[in-house]
Design goal:
This protein is an alpha/beta fold and 190 residues long. It is built from six helices and six strands. It has a single domain (8-44, 51-189), classed as Zn peptidases (Aminopeptidase, 3-Layer(aba) Sandwich), CATH 3.40.630.10.
Length: 190
């Protein structure tokens, strides 16, 4: 549901309907673009109870690089210290830490470089507790360079989650541009 600010949307279960929507939109954009990759968009299950779907999906796909497309936790509500604010409208959240993994540093740097080159606003974020599918994907075989791109969301895990449309649109742009630049040479350098 569109709220009073037409750029803010309220809905239940953004975690992780937003990720499914992002995958669809990235795939749609890439059907019109040349890129050097075989791309898999995978919706997993049981993330909240042990990252089980990520484990089996990574084993089947055996990716060279992985992105988890997720919500990120907006802290722009009363009760959070001003220095910990992750706010709606600040662009995609690129996670530098979650409770299940640290991202591949070279992939993290590449995402920031791509965002800067394409003038995509972003911010760095972390999730101290819990984890994302990358927690299992990055452990597949000898390891998979992995990164989480998230849309800041207020009140995750509730029926009244709120997102900002520009964060979603810029997340899709960032992921699309990342796929386009990740050729064999760049993947080998990760």
């Amino acid at each position: 549901m569109m709220m009073g600010n037409p750029k803010t949307y309220l809905a239940k279960a953004w975690d992780d309907r937003i990720g499914c929507a992002m995958m669809i939109d990235v795939m749609r954009r890439l059907t019109k673009e040349r890129h050097p990759n075989a791309l898999y968009a995978v919706g997993t299950v049981q993330e909240e109870v042990g990252l089980r779907g990520a484990t089996t999906s990574a084993a089947v796909v055996d990716p060279d690089v992985a992105f988890a497309v997720e919500v990120s936790i907006a802290h722009d509500t009363p009760g959070f210290p001003a220095d910990e604010v992750e706010a709606l409208g600040n662009g995609p959240a690129i996670l530098v830490y979650d409770g299940s993994m640290l991202p591949n540093r070279n992939l993290l740097d590449l995402a920031q470089d791509v965002a800067a080159k394409h003038k995509i606003p972003y911010h760095l974020a972390s999730i101290g507790r819990g984890g994302t599918d990358t927690g299992k994907i990055h452990l597949n075989r000898a390891g998979v360079p992995s990164l989480v791109i998230g849309v800041s969301t207020r009140y995750i895990h509730s029926h009244i989650g709120i997102i900002h449309r520009s964060d979603y649109d810029n997340s899709v742009r960032l992921l699309t541009e990342m796929v386009k630049v990740l050729d064999a040479r760049k993947v080998a350098a990760l």
